[in-house]
Fold each of these.
Amino acid sequence: MSNNNLGTPQKVFNWIDKRFPVSAAYKAHLSEYYAPKNFNFWYFFGSLALLVLVIQIVSGIFLVMHYKPDASLNSSGISVAFASVEYIMREVPFGYYIRYIHSTGASAFFIVVYLHMFRGLIYGSYRAPRELVWIFGCMIFLALMAEAFFGYLLPWGQMSFWGAQVIVNLFSAIPIIGPDLAILIRGDFVVGDATLNRFFSFHVIAIPFVIVALVAAHIIALHEVGSNNPDGVEIKDKKDENGIPLDGIPFHPYYSVHDMLGVGGFLMIFAAIISFAPEMGGYFLEANNFIPADPLKTPSHIAPVWYFTPFYSMLRATTAEFLLPLWIFAALMLGTVIIKTKNQLAKLISSSLILLLALGFYFLDAKFWGVVIMGGAVIILFFLPWLDQSPVKSIRYRPKFHYYMYGLFVIAFLVLGYLGVEAPSPIKERISQFFTLVYFGFFLGMPIWSSKGKFKPVPDRVTFEAH
């Protein structure tokens, strides 16, 4: 067809397409990106995470139009920041709904990300050749935690203020540089106006750019190596004469339409929570955060939002009396690696770690090790591709006891999350310590237990049942 016979919209598109790779990007990432044909409901959560990111950015833009990051007191004796949130809730048309979209969206983000990561865990999506995809995902998780933490202070309520006070003070436990680092983060000797402005800048500008860039890198890396599937079979190994995977189907329209089912279900639940239970019994929005921040009045129980509580429980569980059992546990786990592995480098690293941990537990206090344990619980996820020594990827073809290992890990994570919300007590402290060991034992023992047992034969091609 000659160019003269084309309509104006098509001419405009062709002009743009010659100068910007619209068609090429569409083909590479949608119509000619072949995904395994056996995706199940676990594969909803990647697209849902992208949806929630868009919801958070858009709702955040509208909130910033009215929010003022100012900790000074107004004529009513309430901080300007807290008053601006009240103004959004009471005076701005549909402001309360936008605020609840943003606060509920934060929890929804972590729910879908945790489920997305768990799917990667059970189906081995972190295994070769997708190590970099997993690492980018873990970096997104870290950036998301930072974004949530910086945003948590902005309402300038009681829990916001004191939660930030507790978390920032943890940095002072780092030897030598800790006290100066805590002052640098706060911008002052106490949490105040400088802290609020810094956190606002990071929450609104810096971290969102980082998250968007990491999401782009995550997707590009994924589309370069291809998606994993519940069988853990590489569909690129079996292609037809045209180079198309025999067990692959175009992402668009098949999975773009498939994902709309997940989007529809998610939005119905999301809208119901926003409309009828935005505080979710105090888990999504705590009652103390509806009280203006008061530096002279500490809440009876300070706890972060639910999505931080598993790691907060580990922090609280690390007491002085727990350090010796912790060192013995770490030494046993590393000692097992030394005995079982034939890799001389792994033996050297494990031996060095045992010595360093012994010196550290002797010379450094429990507060420091609590910060290390809390941070290590996230950092250890980066090493999962190399900790897992199983000959198969998917849990479908692993021994039965692997199911129990994953189940115990999930129970440990949920129990630690629950205990982090609750007020501390001696019995809860002991339970937290036990499940902290279970959490780390799952990963540190993975090089041993992941390779044990009778594995089922993996099929040459993916198994598929219409649903």
Amino acid sequence: MWTKEDEAFMQRALDIAERGRGRVAPNPLVGCVLVKEGEIIAEGWHDHLGGLHAEQMAIHDAESKGKSPNGSTVYVTLEPCNHYGRTPPCTQALMWAGIKKAVIAHYDPNPTVRGQGVEVLRDAGIEVETGLLEAEAAVQMREFLYWCEHRRPIVTVKLAVDKNGSVDDRSQAAGRFTSEGCLDAVHQLRKECDAILVGAETIERDNPSLTVRRVEAERQPLRVVLDPHERTSTKAVVYTDGHETIQIGADYNGLLSLLNRLGDLEKQRLLVEGGPTTIHSFLSEGLVDEFYLVQSQVVHQQPVSSNIDRDVLTQAGLSLHRTETWGEESVQVWLRNTTQ
């Protein structure tokens, strides 16, 4: 059904969609290319929240180059919207531009779309084909698709341990023990998440800022402090630097309730950076979707065991998916079996 040229055009759309990562939430990553006579004449992607959608940017790109989009084929990674939101409907933009054919990777499960985009285009006489590189598009938009289905965020855990699985060295003041390169990777991960959660013990021991600092970021993630016994001091930096923070105190009603609350705030990916107690609570309830286990070659003199190993992660429904290198550290990436 699909030619190699079709796949190449859609792959290009997927590639340029990545330019919006960390900048468009709660909208999904979307890329688009316009093709005429076998050549790409224009490209577009959703660059930032409130900005042009991918289809609109591609049409604008064509016009700015003096190339008419009339009669072209559009390759787009997500079904075009047919409703007024932060921008006008993309279906109208495509019709006005004179697009003759639309090739769509993935349908849009958002209740405001759900097939209406395809239907409107077909009713307008535009040929529509769907499903090209659908699996690849689903991986790219996984947080958005998960939120549309469950109305709560994907849960990502990041935990750094020493050579023997310790999370802290009580012989020293609190401090980072991983490399600068690893820290850069952590801040990139933070950039890609909508909220960051830690527990009260992490606030008391480390007083972290929980912000994105080492990479360029359009926004800061919402910070969540899980503190049901209200132990933390309001003088902590996390409360006073001007960035938004939610403290879950005596109103704590369970982790699932918390995730649903974050889903209501359109948070699609939560990063848990707390200590072992907080992380174990997520693992024991089967709420972890991916786990980044960062291992340093440092050896702590007065270690604090994480009590997290292969057996614990496997019992929590996770499987080792790949290994990475962050600076001087090795990283195991574990994924929930149903999301691999």
